[in-house]
Amino acid sequence: MRLNPFDTSKIDVGTTGGGGVGKAGGIGCGTIIIAALGYFVFGLDPMQTAATVEGMQQGQVAQAPTNEDEDAICSSNQYATETCNALLSLNETWQQTFQQQGYGDQFQQPGLRFATSESFSTGCGRGSVGMGPFYCPADQRIYIDVNFYDQLAQMSGNRGDFARYYVIAHEYGHHIQTITGISQQIRSYQQANPRQANQLSVLMELQADCYAGVWAGKNRNLIDPGDIEEGMQAAAAIGDDTLTKGRVSSENFTHGTSAQRSQALRLGLQGDDKQCDAITNIG
User: What is the C-alpha R_g of the chain?
Assistant: First the structure.
C-alpha cells in the first residue's frame, strides 16, 4: 500500500521508555509469538479492558514519552515508519469521514506509543511488550510493540505491508468506537447481561475489523495488487478458532472466528462505515 510519508507535526507519537524501537528476531521468538498473539486475541482491546478499567485508578496516566525526537522514533526502522505512515493516513481518512457526516467536532486523534520498555503504565493499567498491540480507551492511545509484526507474519504466512497496516487500522477502529460512544454502550450491555459478555466482545472486534476495511476501502487508489489478500490472510490467522485449535468453546470466543474476521474486513472494504455500525446495533 502506497501511503504518504509521516508528518510528525500531524500525529501524536512517542515511546514507553528509553531506547529505539526494536525489531523482532533471535532466540525466544516462539515464546513471544504465543504470548503476543494470545493477548491480541484475548487481551487488552477495549472490551477486555472495559470490564476492569473502572476498578483501576481513573486518574492514572500513561507514562510520559521520552524526549526522543518524534521523527527519529518514526524513522528508527521499517515497521515504525510504516506504522507512523498508517497513523497519518488513518487520521486524515477518519477526520474527513466525520466532517462529511457532520460530526467533525466529535473527531479526536488517538496517540501512538511504541512499546520499548519491558513494562510500562497506561491509562488502563500496566502494559508489557509481550501483550502485542492494544488500544487503551482511558488515555485514547494505541500501544504497539513492532516485534508483533514478525510474529504475525509467521502465523499468517505473509510479510506484506498491508497485513501490518490491518493491525494498526484495527486498533484505530477501537478508537472510533470510543469517541462515538459505541464502546460505552456495549460496556453497559455487558454489565447488564454478563452471560453475553463474550458475544458482545466479538461484535466489538468484528466492527473494529470492519472499520479497518473502511479505511482501506476509502484509499483504494493506494492499494497494490495482493494487498487485500494479505489482509484476509492476517485476519484469518488471528481468528479465535484458528488460534485456539478447538481448545476453547465457541461460547468463550472474544474476537470472532477466522471466517467472521475476514468477512468483517471484506465488508468494510466497500468503504461504507454505516455498514460497520450495523454490526453492533443491538439496542
Answer: 17
Q: Give the Cα separation of 158 and 169 in Å (integer).
A: 18
The DSSP bridge pattern shows strands 134-136 and 141-144 to be: antiparallel
* Average pLDDT value for residue range 40-44: 40
Q: What distance lies between CA 56 and its chain's CA centroid?
A: 22
Closest by Cα among 6, 149, 202 to 90: 6
H or E segment and range at residue 61: none
Rounded to whole angstroms, the Cα distance separating 264 from 237 reads 14
93-117 pLDDT, tens digit per residue, is 999 999 999 999 999 999 999 998 8
Distances 212 to 109, 177, 219, 238 between C-alpha atoms, Å: 15, 12, 11, 15
Report domain extents, the chain: 13-280
Contact assessment for residue 3 and residue 86, using Cβ atoms and an 8 Å cutoff: yes
Instruction: Name which residue leads in pLDDT, 214 or 236.
Output: 214
Binning pLDDT at 50, 70 and 90, where does residue 152 land?
Answer: confident
Cell numbers placing 187: 460496556
CA distance 104 to 177: 15
- The beta-carbon contacts of 99-108 under 8 Å, at least 24 apart in sequence, are 106/179, 106/180, 107/179, 108/140, 108/179
Contact of 221 with 2, CB cutoff 8 Å: no
Question: Which pTM does this prediction carry?
Answer: 0.83
* Interatomic CA distance for residues 162 and 164, integer angstroms: 5
Read off the pLDDT of residues 61-88 as tens digits, 9 standing for 90 and up: 434 444 458 999 999 999 999 999 999 9
Cα 240 to Cα 76, 145, 225, 237, distances in angstroms: 33, 21, 28, 9
User: Which letter, b or e, does each residue of 138-148 get, where b requires 16 or more Cβ atoms within 10 Å of its Cβ?
Assistant: bbbbbbbbbbb
